[in-house]
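Anyone opening a protein record will find just a pair of labelled lines. A complete record is shown below as an example.
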Amino acid sequence: FIDRDRSSNPTRYCAFMTPRPPAHPSHSNAGEPEPRPHPRRNLLYARRWRKSRVSQYLLSMNPEDLTQPRTRRSAGCLAKLKAESKRSYVLYEHTTDTKLRRELAVAIYSHERAAPDTVFEPKMEVAVPSATRPASGNGRWTMAEPPPGSRGETLHAKMGKIRCIGGQNSTYGDHITIMADRPPPRVWDAYNDARDPILSVKNFSLFFNLPQDRSRRAAILQDAGEGGAEALAKLPLLKMTKLSRDLYEVEFRQPLSLLQAFGLCISRFDTKQAE
C-alpha cells in the first residue's frame, strides 16, 4: 500500500505492508464495533526535493533522509526519481558518484488523447532492466547486464530507440523489459470489487508490452505458444488502485522490485493525466 501524506509540505509518500487490506468505510455496518487496526510495517518513504526546478524525489528506508543534505544521508537512501522532461521520468540508483549510478527504471507518459477509431496508444510505457536468476532456480534475482556494445547508451536512450522501431521486448529483449498500460475498460477487469476501488486517473495496470511491429509481434507470440501468449496478455506486472482519498493499493511481480514499483507509482502521482 502507499499512503499519501498531504499535511507534509511537500507531500510525503510511504509504502507499507499490512496483513489485511485496511477496511473501507462502506463495508462497515452501523452499530458494529470498529475492527482493530492491523499493524503496518513501513518499508519506503519518498518526498519531492524542494530546491530543484524539475521534479526530483528521494526514496529512502529512513524518513529522516528526506530532509537531510547528501553528505548526511544514511545507507538506507536507495534511489532518486527525476523528471527528465514533462513526460519522462528516470529512477536512478542513489550513489555519491553520478558516473557510476545505474538506471533502475524509465517511465514515459503520453498526455494526448487518442483520436476516435484509432489503435490505442499507451498513456504509460515503462522500461526496466530484465531480471535473471541462477540456472539452478535458487538464489536471488539480479538485474541483467547492459546489451553488448551499448554500455555508453542510457536506458532512456535505448527505450527511445526501441519505441521508434516498434521492437518492444524484441530488441534487447534479454536485457530490457518493456511494459505498458491498457485501455481504461480493460484496466478494471482484474480489480477485486470487495476492496471497493475508486475511479481515478492515478489508477493503472502495466502489462507485458508486445512489439508494435507486426512481424516482431508474431514472432514473440509464436515462441510463447497459445498458453504463454494468453498469460502475457492477462497478467499485470504492476497495478495501482485507489482505495480512499490518500490510500492506494499496489501489486507487483517479477521483474519489478519493491523499489522500482514504488518509484514508478510516485511518477504517476507527479504527472498529470488526461481524463
